[in-house]
Automatic annotation (TrEMBL):
Residues 5-158 form the N-acetyltransferase domain. GO terms for molecular function: acyltransferase activity, transferring groups other than amino-acyl groups. This is GNAT family N-acetyltransferase. The lineage of its organism: Bacteria, Bacillati, Actinomycetota, Actinomycetes, Micrococcales. Gene3D superfamilies: 3.40.630.30. It comes from Cryobacterium cryoconiti. The keyword Transferase applies.
Length: 162
């Protein structure tokens, strides 16, 4: 499945649908107080880049947001990955890997040294995916400290990519 990755405005009908599906999925797994999903308004804030994966026909297949640098809840030079989601019909075709690879490369060119993220213990596919692409489990950070349904990961970006 051919995909292109670009930074786009989150305020688009196709992306609203991906965010809706993502929210429904998270709510099916975790109680509302344990969902830390950014809204469209939060995704439009300075310091947030929204990456969109599209197929050859231009249809949105997946989305991921990077809350960069000083806005991240973790260590200096880190950015937090938020709202990573691939449409169910596009799963199993490498969309998530392509999206993450492009986002990491872009982050490195912007001086980000580490990507941090939070997911949940019932998100088995996400846990396996992040581990398979080099993310390591780290202690809970920021707003996730003390959260029963949070698992945090981090990945240091290669120095040669920066």
């Amino acid at each position: 499945m051919l995909t292109t990755i670009s930074i786009e405005s989150p305020r688009q009908p196709e992306l609203a649908e991906l965010l809706r599906l993502s929210g429904e999925y998270a709510q099916s797994l975790y109680p509302p107080e344990s969902n830390f999903l950014l809204s469209v308004e939060e995704l439009e804030q300075p310091g947030v880049a929204v990456y969109v994966a599209r197929d050859a026909a231009g249809h949105a297949l997946g989305i991921a947001a990077l809350v960069g640098g000083a806005d991240a809840a973790g260590p200096p030079g880190a950015a937090e990955l938020k709202r990573m989601f691939v449409h169910p019909d596009a799963r199993g075709h490498g969309v998530a890997g392509h999206l993450l690879t492009e986002m990491e490369a872009d982050a490195a060119t912007r001086g980000i040294r580490e990507i941090i993220l939070e997911t949940g213990p019932a998100s088995h596919a996400a846990l396996a995916f992040y581990r398979s692409v080099g993310y390591r489990e780290v202690p809970l950070f920021g707003q996730y400290v003390g959260e029963e349904f949070s698992v945090c990961f981090a990945k240091v970006l290669p120095a040669d990519a920066q």
